[in-house]
Amino acid sequence: MSNEPINPIDALYDEDNYDDIILLNERGEEVVFEQIALIPKKEATYVILKPRNPIEGLGEDEGLVFTVETNPDTDLEYLALVTDEKIIDEVFEVYDELVAQEDGSEE
Fold first, then answer.
1. Of 14, 66, 73, 92, which cross-links 79 as Cys (Cβ 3.0–4.6 Å)?
2. Other Cβ atoms within 10 Å of 47 Cβ, number
3. Where are the domains of the chain?
4. Does 77 score more than 70 pLDDT?
């Protein structure tokens, strides 16, 4: 087994991987996240990640929504934080529906 860090995008798409996702914040510091959900939608793929350690302004049981984007110069995928409240609400609506289906209870 290799100790090489796994690419966060690869980790998110791997259905058998439940390891934490490590991203760099704007100051270049590592932030560890728990994978909550991968939400593919027609216009984009969204990811809900919950920080393992407190982040200022974010509740203890809250997650952040990221979108998988592609750098046009390198064709490399990366995660970008979503700040549009409408998109965030839509992603969490889909997530809530998925959780309700798994629980066997429709809302």
1. 66
2. 25
3. 8-103
4. yes
Is-contact 35 46, C-beta < 8 A? no
Contact (Cβ atoms closer than 8 angstroms) between residue 36 and residue 63: yes
Q: Where are the alpha helices (DSSP H) in the chain?
A: 8-13, 85-103
In this prediction the pTM is: 0.83
Mean pLDDT, the chain, whole residue set: 87
Q: Quote the radius of gyration of the chain (alpha carbons, Å).
A: 15
Residue of 2, 48, 45, 39 lying closest to 21 (CA atoms): 48
**What is the distance of C-alpha 10 from the center of its chain?**
12
Number of neighbouring beta carbons within 10 Å of residue 89: 10
Q: By CB neighbour count within 10 A (0-12 exposed, 13-18 middle, 19+ buried), where does 12 fall?
A: buried
CA distance 8 to 77: 10
| CA pair distance 36, 41, nearest whole angstrom | 16
